[in-house]
Amino acid sequence: MRAERGRTGLTMIDKDSIILDLTRRDPRYRPEAYHFMFEALDFTITMRGGARRHVSGPEIMEGVRRLALEQFGFLARPVFLYWGITRTDDFGEIVFNLITSDLLQKTADDRKEDFFGLFDFEEAFDVAFEQTLSAVEL
């Protein structure tokens, strides 16, 4: 997936308007979930050295996991739950909603299934955060 380059002149207000329209058509996810997906995509690209090339579903999800732990810590799962996200499959739905709305691009090989069952949220967020805490010396 890549951020859409075809929509020249797309302002933040336009993007917000498109996302609000998305949440009306598919109310499963809150607007914050879509904004977080863009942050996670940028985070993933930066994590890979900044080259703007295609990012796979598993790569995006690793970026989502790391960014969520960095931003939300132990609250990552409750934040995602509030946004309507309970599993990696939900991020696939969000990405493909963004693709359908022309806010992201995909390749012929990209599929929603690329996001299915990639990791368990409890293990990825709760256990990972606890491990991070135990590594901190006070």
Description:
The chain is mostly helical and 138 residues long. The protein is built from six helices and two strands. The longest helix has 17 residues, at 31-47. Residues 4-8 have low confidence and may be disordered.
Could you write a compact summary of the structure shown?
With 138 residues, this protein is mostly helical. The chain contains 6 helices and 2 strands, in the order βαααααβα.
**Overall morphology:** globular
What is the strand arrangement across the widest sheet? 1-2
Based on helices, strands and strand pairing, what is the structural class?
Answer: mainly alpha
Please report the number of helical segments: 6
Count of distinct structural domains: 1
* Beta-strand proportion: under 5%
What's the average pLDDT?
89
Annotation keywords:
two-stranded antiparallel ribbon; 3% strand; 138 residues
Blueprint of the fold:
Blueprint: E1 2-3, H1 12-25, H2 31-47, H3 57-72, H4 76-83, H5 88-100, E2 104-105, H6 121-135
Helix pairs in contact: 2-3
